[in-house]
Amino acid sequence: MKELLILPILFAAVFGLVYLLYRNGIGVINSKAALMYQGYPRVGRNRNRIKAKFISCRGTTKRVICLRPERMYRFVFSSAVTKGTVWIEISDKESEHPLVLDQQHPCANISVRRGGRLFVTTRFTKANGEYELSWDLLE
């Protein structure tokens, strides 16, 4: 009987750990298929950027960015895509319509609300190339 209880408890603990990592900006939720995808970690000098190279990529990646609340940030999207499309959607937990950054609209200023979390979704449609999303605090 004890063996039957261990498996659900273990499953709940693993799920809880993954959720905590995602909510604190460490974990990434991937729902994509690609021949090659190379993402760069957000540490050191790359703390304020998301960057990746990919070949034949379709799908989405979702992540949380934890920023200082009640501040204004400038987000800049740049990409070198040879095939397909890549765009980024940025939202907070209260917004109904996400802000979309793509090649036609690469920059935006965003005011971070209380809580300091932004949800960033990168969407790929049969894309080859690379992209970078960077942000800086506006004084």
Alpha plus pi helix count:
1
Order of helices and strands: HEEEEEEE
DSSP summary, beta strand count: 7
In CATH, the topology is named: Jelly Rolls
Largest sheet: 7 strands, antiparallel
Cα end-to-end separation: 60 Å
For the record, the CATH architecture stands as Sandwich
Low-pLDDT sequence parts: none
Task: Please provide a written account of the structure.
This protein has one domain (29-137): Jelly Rolls (Sandwich), CATH 2.60.120. Helices cover 16% and strands 57% of the residues. It is α+β, with helices and mostly antiparallel strands.
Q: Brief overview, please?
A:
The protein is an alpha+beta fold and 139 residues long. It has 1 helix and 7 strands, in the order αβββββββ. It has one helix spanning 2-23, and strands at residues 28-33, 36-39, 49-66, 71-91, 99-101, 107-112, 117-137.
